[in-house]
Write a structure and sequence with these properties.
alpha/beta, three-stranded antiparallel sheet, globular, 11 helices, 334 residues
């Protein structure tokens, strides 16, 4: 089971905010961790919904952190445009991230189920269809009605499956999904750019994209082969190594070298450009990131400042380098 949860600023203070009631000087790190543990009271902190932010408000910016927030699909839930899928959650929260994603498969045997400390999960994402769709929709509706979740979404479902789930919900007066988790990066574009936008406009399903750096391929670490300390060198990631050293993988590395020049022009790193490029897509509610160090997290969060720099001219230059811009059926009619 894959679970995503979000927390709002209602009743929660970050370390940059002064605490007038506390006259002592606690350790900043301990204080930050203590504040983040209050996410366990997430049921109290879900106040920033449609009542406070009208659903037509597509994006807002946090005053303290500069983090941008968007509606999850056409629901009333406001999530940070960047979400963290692994650890370093306290640092992320201190920088305005309010969307966290967990699943048993993350980090293998070392995975820590973050949701143990959460009273109410916000969004349950169903990854694998092991039963018929009506049963899934009924189960998710039950979870929401019992207070176990606020919304539910899908992960790696086809547009047809999502539409079928929506039809089942309408037919039996059940609750439909509000988002789809989909892979989206420089080399994986069609589903998010062609298939899902139609679902957003028809039934309000938003996109939470994942793997913006293509499992590390876009970081530039594989320019000169596969380093021994990299993920691709691990036995369980043999498939990634084969992908990198393949003919297509080498072509991708050539394109990434060209894109690094674009990043230099914008005074940012290649990973920042990649994340900002994903966020530039108006159909993407949030981008899930996985980081293994504070330095990586800080660098990725800097992508927010790069978004305004990706002008139509820069976007066109990126498309020209990639040479893989997908076209919808409407494009062929013009």
């Amino acid at each position: 089971m894959q679970v995503s949860f979000a927390c709002t600023d209602h009743g929660l203070k970050r370390s940059s905010e002064p605490n007038k009631q506390n006259t002592s000087s606690p350790n900043p790190t301990s204080a930050a961790r203590a504040r983040f543990r209050t996410v366990a009271l997430i049921a109290r902190s879900l106040g920033t919904f449609t009542h406070r932010h009208h659903i037509s408000l597509k994006e807002s910016t946090g005053k303290l952190t500069g983090m941008k927030y968007r509606n999850l699909g056409k629901s009333g839930l406001r999530v940070s445009c960047l979400g963290l899928a692994e650890q370093l959650m306290t640092i992320a929260y201190e920088n305005g991230v309010n969307l966290f994603d967990t699943a048993e498969v993350y980090a293998g045997d070392d995975c820590v189920c973050v949701c143990v400390c959460v009273c109410v999960c916000v969004c349950v994402c169903v990854c694998v269809c092991v039963c018929v769709l009506p049963e899934i929709v009924r189960a998710m509706t039950y979870a929401i009605n019992q207070g176990m979740a606020m919304y539910w979404g899908t992960s790696r479902w086809s547009a047809m499956e999502i539409m079928e789930a929506y039809s089942v919900a309408r037919q039996f007066n059940l609750i439909p999904p509000v988002c789809e988790q989909a892979e989206y990066h420089f080399f994986q574009r069609e589903k998010v750019e062609v298939q899902l936008p139609e679902l957003y406009h028809k039934i309000g399903v938003g996109v939470v994209s994942w793997s913006p750096l293509a499992c590390g391929i876009i970081t530039g670490k594989y320019d000169n082969g596969v380093p021994e300390s990299s993920r691709a060198a691990m036995k369980s990631y043999q498939w990634l190594k084969e992908k990198i050293v393949s003919e297509d993988g080498q072509k991708q590395q050539t394109k990434l070298k060209e894109l690094s020049h674009v990043a230099e022009k914008l005074s940012c790193s290649l990973p920042q450009l990649a994340v900002a490029w994903c966020l530039r897509n108006e159909g993407v509610s949030s981008v899930l990131m996985g980081t293994s160090s504070p330095a990586q997290l800080t660098e990725n969060l800097g992508a927010i400042q790069v978004i305004p720099k990706i002008t139509p001219q820069i976007a066109s230059e990126i498309d020209k380098i990639l040479g893989n811009k997908p076209h919808s059926k409407k494009d062929y009619h013009h």
